[in-house]
Amino acid sequence: MSSRPNSVIQSESVSLPSIFMDSPDIAPQLQSIKAHLDLALLALEALTGISSDAVLKTAQRLGLEEFFGDRLSLWRMRQSSPLRKGKGRKNLDIEEAQALTLVICSLARQYQGKIRQAIAKLEQLSPQKQSLHQEPILADYLEHFHQLYCERMMQWEAVSPSYLEKLSLKLLVDLLFYSAPNGDRRLWIALWDHSLGR
Q1: What is the per-residue pLDDT for 89?
Q2: Which residue, 40, 147, 30, 154, is CA-closest to 102?
Q3: Containing domain of residue 80, as a range?
Q4: Are the CB atoms for 177 and 183 separated by under 8 Å?
Q5: Are 184 and 105 in contact (CB under 8 A)?
Q6: Closest to 191 in 3D by CA, of 92, 122, 110
Q7: How far apart are CA 87 and CA 79, in angstroms?
Q8: Contact yes or no for 71/52 (Cβ under 8 A)
Q9: If you ran DSSP here, which 8-state letter would residue 190 be given?
């Protein structure tokens, strides 16, 4: 039986504090629901190396095949992000957004150990203001995020390395919240809060 997304993802006030930094300058990248979902999945890719097949298998396990039938349907869904290069389908309906939310949070829970490991290293280094690149897990994540962003996003030349680092770290912290048992609700609320400029 298909477990379609429904009212389980409810609107309630949940705070998603930025543990390490207050970065209002990255808000425009996250205000679009379509861009936010794609960037969250990009961060998961950068940290864990997951492939499109892993995303599709997770969707199948959750009974969401109607939204993620194959790689092409997943690509079209991600191409709805206004930040993306190239041409693709530019709309994303509410059920598709909910389905993608459920998949992202399921993957975050699956890789919660690695997310926590990266966050622990970030916590150790941040107070001392040491280079994050001295820790392999953070260095690999930052490098892969930068590479994926530049490969896939428009106007990446106008984005500074420091901006991308802030964005990638914000997304990494968010992934920890999304890996929690109620992570799908937290992400759904964050999507609407960002889209409203809150």
Answers
A1: 54
A2: 40
A3: 26-195
A4: yes
A5: yes
A6: 92
A7: 7
A8: yes
A9: H
Enter the tokens of residue 113: 């150990």
CA distance 71 to 117: 30
In-domain check, residue 15: no
Q: Is residue 14, in this structure, part of any structural domain at all?
A: no
Q: Are 33 and 195 in contact (CB under 8 A)?
A: yes
Q: Give the E-state strand segments of 104-152 in sequence order.
A: none
Q: Is residue 21 part of a domain?
A: no
Structure tokens that stand for 15 in this block:
């705070």
Query: Count of domains in the chain?
Result: 1
Reported as a single tens digit per residue, the pLDDT across 48-66 is 999 999 999 999 999 998 8
Angle between helices 183-195 and 94-110 (to 10 degrees): 130
Domain-located, residue 149:
yes
Q: Write the pLDDT tens digit of every residue in 70-122.
A: 898 888 888 888 888 876 556 777 888 889 999 999 999 999 999 999 999 99
Which CA distances in Å does 69 have to 45, 58, 82, 103? 20, 12, 22, 13
d(CA 86, CA 83): 10
Strand partners, 153: 84
Model-wide pTM > 0.90: no
Res 124: pLDDT: 87
